[in-house]
Specification:
The complex is a heterodimer of chains A (1052) and B (485). Chain A is an alpha+beta fold and 1052 residues long. Chain A contains 36 helices and 22 strands. The chains are: A alpha+beta (1052), B alpha/beta (485).
Chain lengths: 1052, 485
């Protein structure tokens, strides 16, 4: 969108506008000559905007040691301050602001600030009237104000109305009459569900003249699952929720389980205090449930940077800052972020206090450099409710299967003993567990492996010598076995390597899938000066995992080595076992960020640019799963099965006994026992694969030892100053005593009844979604620089009521939408417009263009295309081709087919750096940062989208087909289309314009039926072949027109 | 800014329509049409702020040729003959001064100096030194002003390019084009005030991505966003009528839509409805004007020759340069091209030569073309990337090959046209092109200077958001007087 010359205005319009603006300012402050000046309403805004920058809370920038944000500073002791109450002429402040001397005059010219004559006059009056001070209103806890008396008591439906009407009556204004019933049911349905009412719902309401009819509609809407979807939409903007990470390559992430938690929370009417605590610190609640932990994902929704070469410490700080900023904006309506680099210029928050709040959020075991594709730790598996149910079933079956085998324990022991006594092995048995085994290299006189068909080739002199089991391969430091395309693993795969090695010196590569050039990518297992080292590398130095054993391995003797990796992309996912014992590891690099999978062959005894292996290697096993310690122990038990069998049972070591038992169970146990065991493996595999399919979600988590937090000078990550402890600003209520001063305590502090801000801010957000603006218009700033509330007592009453109701969110919505204030007609008169262009006084109902998602959803709903299903992974509906590719050069957006095209817009995949264009065109937040303020523009790009975008043209086509099927005569069909979109029947005049349109289009399509055919191909929904194509095309054109009506995209 | 002006700005359009609401229709719509050529009257008459521009502007418009990925100043503009002597030797600590490096090279065992493998020569009357891979730029140097002492704060692409475009490293602030649209409004009644075009270079295909936020409106209303003109599909998203709906059918529909919306306007009196009617008309005009603009078939042969053969291929940098000139001719205020592919960590000599050949001829042609048409007198052209590149080699230094990492401490950009001294070089770096030795120019300074050329005091173009009067230059920025004509 852009500025277009079309929005011109005449000089005349300009002066009228200024005149109206002045009228409006007067209406807003509502003080006349007789009305005493009030500090919070009249004076603080002037001081804050013009003086606090140099004479405010910021100690570093404060000039002349003068502080005007505090009464003590302004008045001083014994009238020594710049303000002498009652005596403007003796007040230095007044002298300086009214001085004609440019050297003396405040604010100074170079500040760019200037007081208006009215402001100077007002300050003078205030001092003359005694310079009464008030604490900033937003920091005084709300008290339930008395409901004001009004004359037109019959208008009042609930206390909201009394507050609104009292103000109107004081200004000599009258509220508007109630909106007609059709308008009302459309308004409330759009507001509570984000979709227009169905014609039958409109009819039911207009036909029901009982006094409780409207309340019944409201109750029905509040219990619809659509309600949670509607309420979630603005919350997702606030929470900067998206499906990608947001910086540079902007790779995908998976947070939709958190999104679904929000929908569920609203639908289940989770009290707002719980809603808050779980999102801020659900992970820390005693015995936190899966859902509570998912909720804490709120503060992992911020952008994360995976760009190569970044300095991780720098971004680790940004993540925490984002959490503080977002939390403060969403719950406190404070711009705490302003105190990151210096004390806040306007509000009582010092820089040190900023970092004390920062400390609550600085304890997450996370890295500054994020994962490029997928979720960054900490994250958790977050099965859906369906998956949880299914998992419970599988677990039950598994327990039963375990139990079934356990019940055979005695029988098994007997059989085993009997078998061991009788079994005469035909020859040597080199056995290893077979589950997940993908390659086995016995190296018995040849390099071939026994499982895959891949051909091995030797490079250089590979010979065969006595090994652990028969022969082993012998390498001379210049040779290796090229095993071809086996063990093709990437960073999401689980795998295990197991081998016997007898190294002749302390350095050499055991195996690798890595080109033999410097800085190649891939993986390798090697001896580095004795230590066994594992490398998982995309790019050396900064995109790799490298771990090694703390203790060196022995040279010149056989030992068993095993490496497992769990697909977690982190160093902690690698384990190394030597002779069956897990070894302590040193983490040398833990910055794996991209897939290290490549097209290289697996090399044994070489690979990569490091030295090749010298010595013997035997019995290499490759598994495509990460074996557990017990299984590694079987592999590391050198004795072949036949020799264990040859020993007396009481002489067998536990390892030998375990190996014998495992071998027996796998190969020789009685059929029913092997079946019982197979059942367990089958279920374990099923469970494993099922769990693998679970979505994950990033969550908050506390490190066992809290990270230290320091004040950062000028906000810079590399300029730590004094150490700070977690805490809250002193100007607000204290944290609860006697509990750990941690994030959970902070979460509870947010919803402490003593908190003057949270309830006010929350009710203000809800208010904004109905009336287009909050009672405090600056919904994101309740500080000194924010706007004063239009109805302060109403705001306080609502806040107190909200808390007293047990933070009942649905209750609050019901209170608002059942008020007479909400139910007013939005009809404008020139007088109403002139008097109150922005409807701050609420002498009329709201008339607002719908939010972006509701515009698309309404078109889908009217057409019948909408697929309603709550939750699930995000979907990719139509998007013009190439949008991603032209900016990223990488993969393009892959549009879905079928249902994914018709889900509600809050499920649309949200790529932050290239957001869905039609959403942005209609003023959706880009989701890069927290956004709570609603904006509405009116641009030609919106017109182009509604006229031409596939979604809307296809919706018109489906709407046309629907009305052709559901109604008979042309005027009935047009009227039905109109009702489906606008909720009301068209007037005769409208009907005749639309009817004329239909006729003209039909005539044209009959003349050019090929055009009709083209139009009917827009979008992927199949056209109804039973309908006449020319007629359908003509109705499509009319439906397209209807979907473009201002009224259709408007709540009125 | 005076809150009353802000308030006025928010409400004025509604007021106008409120006054006209009684009889709005064709007559009222006619008054919405901008009178062409009323040069630099108050910007409020074009949807900008009252009182803007604040002083007589030198430039009416800007063409910003953003070179995304960060071109190496050492191989293009900042000739350092001494580097030949230092070649392959270790970067001295006295030069590096312990300054931070990206984590791509900070763990390198050594930092060998890589002299440019390209020859430099002096050109034009001004005697500017230029690399051999910029032969066309060499011919227009007398029109250019090189700033060799640019520096920035970010060391990685995303924050750095975001910083250049919005004055902040993190997302959320308006882009420079959005600020200018907000301040000055539009000169065109059928095209947006701020247009963006993208091209992909051949030097490093598929490298550094771009982001919508680079031309986004941040906390400003979304109408100030840059409109992306595309080379595939519709030049502007959703510009074409759906298949099967032709021009006359659309006109018919818009007339009927207008009539229906007017009925509602009469009934309710909401000025937003009048605005919506006007926006549909504007959309209709764009459907005609944008294809006319992007249809270059009427350009004479010599123009294509001047811009080079690539200028015939839609979506190339050269084709976009030609479109930029056409947009300027039609009054578009801020045209920004983004050319990708300058991120040369490895194989720099080969890659940068390709990048240079993508951009050299067309950039020079644009300057020449604007000059020939008299447009350079009131158009400001800017050419540059988000930071510079290191003098030390990233990866393996060989006789023929080297790479360079990110270097925010010094780099070169050039400007030309309205308000700028031609044929000068401003600022200097040390012998390693590593530290600035004279006249540093910060990103905020550059942005302040661009605004100044447009007649805007950068400290006065503000918007109140979350309690602060925000501006493009945050609380910084000094106009670089030394380069102003």
């Amino acid at each position: 969108m852009a500025v277009y010359g079309g929005q011109k205005m005449t000089r005349l319009g300009l002066s009228a506008a200024i005149a109206a603006a002045l009228v409006w300012v007067t209406a807003q402050s509502a003080h006349g000559a007789d009305d005493p000046v009030r500090f919070n309403r009249d004076i603080r805004p002037i001081l804050s905007d013009n003086c606090f920058q140099c004479h405010g809370p910021d100690a570093v920038r404060r000039k002349a040691e003068l502080r005007l944000d505090l009464e003590s500073g302004a008045k001083g002791a014994n009238e020594a301050g710049p303000i002498v109450p009652g005596k403007p002429d003796e007040s230095e402040l007044f002298r300086r602001i009214s001085s004609d001397d440019p050297e003396e005059r405040m604010p100074p010219a170079d500040s760019g600030k200037k007081l208006t004559p009215d402001a100077i006059k007002l300050l003078g009056r205030w001092i003359a009237e005694g310079a009464t001070w008030e604490k900033h209103w937003a920091f005084i806890p709300p008290m339930r104000p008395a409901v004001p008396p009004v004359s037109r008591r019959e208008w009042i439906r609930n206390p909201i109305d009394a507050f609104v009407l009292a103000r109107l009556e004081a200004l000599g204004l009258r509220p508007s009459p109630e909106a007609d019933r059709t308008t009302l049911v459309r308004r409330v349905t759009l507001d509570l569900t984000g979709l227009p009412p169905a014609p039958a719902e409109v009819d039911a309401f207009t036909a029901d003249d009982s006094p409780a009819a409207y309340e019944r509609v409201v109750d029905r809407l509040l219990s619809s699952p659509r309600y949670g979807e509607r309420m979630a939409a603005p919350w997702l903007n606030a929470a900067r929720y998206a499906d990608t990470s947001g910086y540079q390559d902007d790779g995908p992430r998976y947070m939709w389980r958190w999104r679904d938690w929000v929908i569920e929370a609203f639908n289940g009417n989770l009290p707002f205090d719980r809603f808050t605590i779980e999102q801020i610190a659900g992970d820390m609640l005693p015995g936190a449930t899966l859902e509570e932990r998912i909720a804490s994902g709120f503060n992992r929704n911020h952008r994360t940077n995976a760009e190569g070469g970044i300095i991780p410490e720098e971004f680790a700080v940004e993540y925490v800052v984002d959490r503080v900023d977002t939390t403060a904006t969403v719950w406190l309506g404070l711009t705490l972020g302003c105190a990151r680099c210096h004390d806040h210029k306007f509000d009582p928050v010092s820089q040190q206090e900023f970092y004390r709040v920062f400390a609550f959020f600085n304890n997450v075991p996370e890295k500054g450099r994020a994962i490029k594709v997928g979720n960054s730790p900490p994250y958790m598996k977050a099965p859906t409710r369906d998956q949880q149910r299914q998992l419970a079933e599988i677990e039950q079956q598994l327990a039963a299967a375990d139990d079934a085998l356990a019940r055979r324990d005695d029988e098994l022991a007997t059989c085993l003993a009997q078998w061991a006594g009788q079994f005469r092995p035909p020859g040597p048995i080199a056995w290893a567990p077979s589950l997940g085994l993908t390659a086995h290299f016995p190296f018995d006189q040849k390099a071939e492996e026994t499982l895959a068909a891949a051909q091995c080739q030797t490079k250089g002199a590979v010979t065969f010598d006595t090994g652990v089991v028969r022969q082993a391969a012998s390498f001379d430091g210049a040779s290796h076995v090229n095993a071809g395309d086996v063990a093709k693993f990437g960073y999401f795969d689980k795998f295990t390597f197991s081998a016997w090695i007898d190294p002749a010196n302390d350095t050499g590569t055991v195996l690798a899938r890595m080109a033999e050039v410097p800085d190649a990518d891939g993986y390798s297992v090697l001896l580095a000066k004795g230590q066994l080292q594992v490398n998982l590398v995309k790019r050396w130095l900064d995109d790799a995992v490298r771990v090694e054993t703390e203790e060196p391995l022995a040279v010149g003797r056989w030992q068993h080595v095993a490496v497992t990796y769990d697909g977690s992309r982190a160093a902690q996912g690698v384990r190394i076992y030597v002779d069956g014992q897990e070894r302590k590891l040193r983490v040398l690099l833990d910055e794996l960020n991209q897939n290290f999978g490549n097209a290289e062959p697996l090399r044994i005894g070489g690979g990569g640019a490091q030295a090749a292996f010298t010595g013997l290697i035997d019995e290499v096993h490759v598994y495509q799963r990460d074996l557990a310690a017990g299984e590694i122990s079987l592999l590391a038990t050198r004795d072949p099965v036949e020799s264990i069998l040859g020993s007396a049972p009481e002489e067998r070591t536990p390892q030998q006994a375990a190996k014998l038992r495992a071998f027996y169970l796998e190969r020789h146990a009685p059929e029913h026992i092997r079946a019982a065991r197979a059942r367990i493996f089958e279920l374990r595999d099923l469970k494993f694969k099922f769990e693998e399919s679970f979505p994950t979600v990033m969550v908050m988590q506390e490190m066992p030892t809290p990270r230290e937090t320091f004040l950062l000078e000028r906000g810079q990550y590399d300029k730590p100053g004094e150490k700070v402890s977690p805490g809250v600003p002193a100007s607000l209520h204290p944290l609860a005593p006697g509990v750990p001063q941690d994030r959970l305590a902070f979460a509870r502090w947010l919803v402490d009844p003593a908190n003057p801000l949270t309830a006010r801010v929350a009710v203000n957000h809800f208010w904004q979604s109905y009336f287009g603006a909050g009672i405090v218009k600056t919904v994101d700033d309740f500080g000194a620089q924010g706007d004063a509330p239009s109805h302060p007592e109403l705001l306080d009453w609502l806040a107190v009521e909200f808390m007293a109701s047990g933070w009942d969110v649905k209750g609050l919505q019901k209170l608002i939408v059942t008020s007479a204030t909400y139910r007013q007609s939005s009809q404008l008169t020139p007088e109403r417009l002139e008097r109150d262009p922005e409807n701050r006084l609420l002498a009329r109902g709201p008339r607002l263009r719908l939010p972006a998602e509701a515009i698309r959803d309404s078109a889908l709903a009217a057409s019948g295309l909408l697929v309603e299903r709550v939750g699930g992974p995000s979907v990719k509906p139509y998007q013009p081709p190439g949008l991603w590719k032209e900016l990223t050069g990488g993969g393009d957006f892959e549009q879905e087919h079928g249902e994914g095209l018709y889900r509600r817009s809050l499920y649309t995949f949200w790529k932050r750096t290239i957001a869905p264009p039609s959403m942005i065109t209609f003023d959706a937040s880009a989701r890069e940062a927290c956004s709570v303020r609603e904006t509405r523009t009116n641009t030609p790009l919106q017109a182009l989208a509604l006229l031409n975008e596939v979604t809307f043209v296809e919706a018109a086509r489906a709407l046309a087909a629907r009305v052709m099927r559901e109604a008979g005569q042309p005027d009935e069909r047009i009227a039905l289309a109109f009702r489906l979109a606008a909720s009301r029947p068209p007037s005769d005049n409208e009907l005749s314009i639309l009817g004329g349109s239909l006729v003209r289009h039909l005539r044209k399509f009959r003349r050019q039926p090929e055009d009709a055919a083209k139009l009917l191909k827009v979008g992927e929904a199949p056209a109804d072949g039973r309908l006449d194509p020319c007629e359908l095309a003509a109705y499509t054109a009319v439906a397209n027109l209807i979907l473009n009506l201002d009224e259709v995209i408007t709540k009125e | 800014m005076d809150p009353r002006i802000e308030c006025h700005w928010l409400t004025s359009r509604r007021q106008f329509f409120a006054r006209s609401a009684a009889g709005i229709g064709a007559a009222a719509l006619a008054t919405l049409v901008c009178e062409e050529g009323a040069a630099f009257a108050d910007a409020a008459s074009r949807g900008g702020l009252p009182g803007f521009p604040q002083f007589t502007p030198k430039a009416k418009r800007v063409i910003y040729l953003f070179q995304s990925g960060a071109p190496s100043q050492i191989d293009l503009f900042d000739d350092k003959p001494k580097l030949k002597e230092f070649h392959a030797s270790e970067l001295p600590d006295s030069v590096r001064r312990g300054q931070r490096l990206t984590s791509m090279t900070s763990r390198q065992a050594s930092f060998p100096i890589a002299a440019s493998k390209f020859r430099f020569a002096q050109h034009g009357q001004c005697g500017a030194w230029l690399s051999e891979i910029l032969p066309h730029t060499a011919r227009v140097v007398d029109n250019l002003c090189f700033i060799k002492s640019m520096h920035t704060e970010a060391i990685n692409h995303d924050p750095a390019i975001t910083f250049f475009q919005t004055g902040a490293q993190l997302a959320g602030r308006p882009s420079i084009g959005a600020w200018i649209s907000y301040g000055l409004g539009s000169e065109s009644r059928e095209l947006p005030a701020f247009v963006v075009m993208i091209s992909q270079g051949t030097g490093n295909p598929g490298d550094q991505p771009l982001y919508d936020r680079l031309w986004g409106s941040g906390f400003l209303p979304s109408q100030y966003q840059g409109v992306k003109f595309r080379s595939i599909g519709d030049p502007v998203l959703n510009l074409s009528n759906p298949p099967g709906i032709d021009g006359p059918a659309r006109r018919q529909m818009l007339d009927e839509l207008g009539a229906l919306n007017e009925l509602k306007l009469k009934e309710l009196g909401d000025p937003e409805i009048a605005t919506r009617i006007a926006q549909y008309e504007m959309a209709f005009r764009m459907q005609k004007s944008v294809p006319e603009l992007t249809d270059v078939s009427g350009e004479p042969e010599h123009v294509f020759e001047m811009y080079g053969p690539e200028s015939r291929k839609p979506g190339t940098f050269a084709a976009n340069c030609l479109l930029a000139r056409r947009l300027c001719e039609r009054g578009v205020r801020f045209v920004q091209l983004f050319h990708r592919g300058w991120d040369q960590h490895v194989h720099l000599p080969k890659q940068i030569a390709l990048q240079a050949s993508d951009t050299d001829q067309a950039s020079a042609a644009l300057v020449t073309d604007l000059k020939q048409r008299g447009l350079l007198d009131d158009t400001l052209v800017v050419w540059g990337g988000e930071f510079g590149r290191t003098v030390y080699c990233q990866g393996t230094l060989t006789a023929e090959d080297y790479g360079r990492d990110h270097h925010p401490r010094s780099f070169t950009i050039w400007l030309a046209g309205a308000g700028i001294k031609p044929g000068i070089s401003y600022g200097e770096t040390d012998d390693h092109s590593y530290n600035i030795t004279r006249d540093p120019v910060h990103v905020h300074d550059l942005n302040a200077t661009i605004l100044s050329c447009l007649g805007i005091d950068h400290t006065r173009l503000t918007f109140k958001f979350q309690g602060r009067h925000h501006r493009l230059t945050d609380v910084h920025g000094k106009v670089v007087e030394g380069i102003l004509a």
